[in-house]
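Data availability (excerpt). The following record was deposited with the supplementary files.
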Amino acid sequence: QLQIVESGGGLVQPGGSLRLSCAASAFTLDTYAIGWFRQAPGKDREGVSCISSRSAWPKYADSVKGRFTISKDNAKNTVYLQMDRLKPEDTAVYYCAAERRPSGPCYYHALDEYDVWGQGTQVTVSS
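Predicted structure:
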């Protein structure tokens, strides 16, 4: 059974950093695009970032560009989201998801294209 597990969330002060991890099991990331998404209370789930199967073409939402960095470690079958200079508006449950896409760029706007989702990890940015 394909499975994704996120970890690394927590409480951090504004301006701080967190690194989220997305570990995949029962499939390898070299044929999947991985996206990070978030959902704040009362809001729709939104795409934050994605990385293609070949780790090319990382993409970021304008709201996180320059502050978040997505990366992938194929040896560990894990994708990371390094989040720096965090803001209170970054507070949300963060989800990782996979879409089978052996080639080509990823699309973090296309939530419906992602068919394997993790359970989410809470990120709270507050003083």
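Summary of structural features: The mean pLDDT is 95.
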